[in-house]
């Protein structure tokens, strides 16, 4: 009748931890991006923003004052 005494609290925590680790691994495979892909995306976003800013027209009010609603 002697068997290993198991602390149920520790068992549940260990079981939850392994489940979270499995889920995290799956998420890394599904949603993860490499550093190279992140840098390419960042460069494209910066280039697009720069292109849009260069083509921006500044509009002045009737009195020649700069527009106050500009971000």
What does this protein look like?
The structure is a single chain. The protein is an all-alpha fold. It has a domain at 9-54. It is built from two helices and no strands. The protein has helices spanning 8-31, 35-54. The radius of gyration is 28 Å and the shape is elongated. The mean pLDDT is 85.
Salient structural properties:
about 70 residues, mainly alpha
Explain the layout of strands and helices.
Elements: H1 8-31, H2 35-54
- What helical percentage do the residues reach? 55-70%
> Based on helices, strands and strand pairing, what is the structural class?
mainly alpha
For the terminal residues, how far apart are their CA atoms?
76 Å
Low-confidence stretches: none
Measured by DSSP, the beta-strand proportion falls in under 5%
Give a quick account of the main beta sheet: strands, pairing sense, barrel closure.
none
Mean pLDDT: 85
CA-based gyration radius:
28 Å
Given the structure, what is the number of helices?
A: 2
Number of strands: 0
Region (Disordered): 1-71
Biased composition (Basic and acidic residues): 44-71
Pfam families: DUF4169
Organism: Sinorhizobium medicae
